[in-house]
Amino acid sequence: TIITNDTSILENSSYEYIIIGGGTTALAVANRLSANHSVLVVERGPDLVNNEVVNDPFMFGMPSPCFFQVNLAPQLGSNDTKMIPYTHGSCLGGGSSINSMIGSRPTYAGMSAVEALGNPGWGWNDFLPFMQKSETFHPPNPTQHAEGANYLAAVHGFEGPVGVSFLQPFLAPTFQNAAKNTTHTVFDGTVALSPDMGDGFSGGHYASYYYHIHFNESLQVDRRSSSAWSYLYPQTQQRPGLTVLTGHLVDTIMTSHGTDGNITATGVLVEPISGGTALAFNASREVILSAGVLYSPTILQRSGIGNATFLQSLGIEPVLDLPGVGANFQDQALLINATFPLSPSANITNVTADGVTLLGLVITHPTTIDALGPNGTSAFDSMLRNISTEHALSVGGVITAETLTTQAALIADAYQIDHPLMELFYTPGATMLEIWAQSVLPLSRGTIRINTTNPAADPVADPQYLSAEVDLDVMVAAARRMSSMAVTPPFSDLLTPTALEESGVPPVGATDEEVRQWVLSTYIAGLHGVASNSMMPRELGGVVSPQLLVYGTTNLRIADASIVPLSVFPHTTLGLYGVAEKAADMILQAAEST
Ligand SMILES: Cc1cc2nc3c(=O)[nH]c(=O)nc-3n(C[C@H](O)[C@H](O)[C@H](O)COP(=O)(O)OP(=O)(O)OC[C@H]3O[C@@H](n4cnc5c(N)ncnc54)[C@H](O)[C@@H]3O)c2cc1C
């Protein structure tokens, strides 16, 4: 494999496939295609192969040259609007080189909703083999098992590039036990210990969680399993047909018009990030767009693919009128800052010496019934099935009212087959314990738009967090469970007597309005954005077909978080490796038939 930021050595090279972006999904697709074909990957960020902040999982959250933030458009706050950033990774590995490595998967119910949205072949039974193909799961050793780690072999893969494992050593078992037992009590015994949170059976569960990390035997430490370290760097993954160009950004996709009205992607126009002459690279077979949920729509828009009226307003000549580009954008809202002081007498053993650990050692996924009870569930179901489309339409979040009502009904169906309503996750530190909570299947819809043709500019990103009333209700319910956790033993036994008051989380008896205000002032971006180039029928605002082909094109595909039409991956990465493996499989099948 050639990894370079020097284009002079690439002159006169030709490629069958060009992949835009060298992030999470991109490098997995590149690896599979380049086994038999010539592939060029163009990544804006640097190659950080030896950067310890990236490679050491316990340095998660520290700034590295991969760490970038975009300021979102003003979002709903407790006092009118508030400004919040959206973090993303820009280097080889993309988000997988900076994320918190929680190894979450979609569920049977979630993938059924994706399939029912008009995407045959994307249900759980079809999708699971691709997640398995990407994975080498490391079963818990006897000590980890005794301390609470568990798994089901039947749903995992054991020969794929991405290492997935429990922490070694398995941190803070006392804390993990307390979190599990209190969860059981706080949800009145309705949630149960899961044999494996990735088994697709999504009834109300909690468990010790695994991560996309692997244990390096020679160094005797845990290491991040980024897509770069899984699919690109290892000796076993070297590919003579693969060239990775770093430090360069794709400005536009070059296209030609066919006689049948469809357009064909012929290559990409690339610029060095340091400035300099633009270069064209040609693709003889396909162009695959994998620049992530924020940037893939911007590259389409600069290339004249998007809402024609909007593009004309920026002086861009429309090539393909596709109003769904940049619409349907959604992200989970995340409640953090629930930090409870640890009792001096609490002995939560085996937290690393400086108190740094990974996020979410224990995770809970309650269903609507677990979280809202039977009456609350029926009211919530009715809200979803009678949703107002006015707001989402007015901000451009959906292109037709039917888009939102169809998605809301599918979400309601998913909840009926036990899709999690929310996620609570518990993390220990040296002096405090943290509980975070996120919505899982939000209904608020926003947009990604360019406001300039400058390829180096950030997009105007507007997820419209909590603008759908149902989403705010979920977060209020989640916040109430956070309060209950802090006052219920054995979890509360680990805390100071005044921990809940000190945390600022609303007291157990707070009114709905008080909790709502706290939620609105506290929430931040969940960073699991999806759907800005949704895979769904074109008339609903879809951008790609179930084969991930951009509608109206012969050979332009998208493979990244932007195609996932509903937020069905509680955390996105392991699902995105499934998307990558499935995309590569479809692309290789298409190549075989020509
Ligand atoms: C701080 C943080 C914590 C997270 N925690 C978790 C977690 O614990 N578990 C989990 O599963 N998920 C987590 N996620 C989410 C997950 O990492 C992302 O959803 C995922 O990495 C997105 O993958 P992608 O392939 O869609 O895009 P990315 O991985 O973002 O890749 C896109 C790539 O395209 C490049 N690019 C963009 N524009 C251009 C251009 N014009 N030309 C060339 N290259 C370009 C970018 O530099 C980037 O490298 C987290 C995300 C963040 C930011």
UniProtKB/TrEMBL annotation:
SUPFAM superfamilies listed in its UniProt record: FAD-linked reductases, C-terminal domain, FAD/NAD(P)-binding domain
Cofactor entry: FAD
Domain Glucose-methanol-choline oxidoreductase N-terminal: 15-332
Domain Glucose-methanol-choline oxidoreductase C-terminal: 442-580
InterPro entries: FAD/NAD-bd_sf, Glucose_Oxidase_domain_2, GMC_OxRdtase, GMC_OxRdtase_N, GMC_OxRtase_C
Gene3D superfamilies: FAD/NAD(P)-binding domain, Glucose Oxidase, domain 2, Glucose Oxidase, domain 3
UniProt keyword annotations, A-Z: FAD, Flavoprotein, Glycoprotein, Oxidoreductase, Signal
Domain of life, source organism: Eukaryota
One Pfam family cited in the UniProt record for this chain: GMC_oxred_N
GO molecular function: flavin adenine dinucleotide binding; oxidoreductase activity, acting on CH-OH group of donors
Binding site residues for FAD: 24-25, 250
Keyword Plastid in record: no
Positions of the catalytic residues: 528, 571
Stored PANTHER family: GLUCOSE-METHANOL-CHOLINE GMC OXIDOREDUCTASE, GLUCOSE-METHANOL-CHOLINE OXIDOREDUCTASE N-TERMINAL DOMAIN-CONTAINING PROTEIN
Protein family according to the UniProt entry: Belongs to the GMC oxidoreductase family.
UniProt protein name: Alcohol oxidase
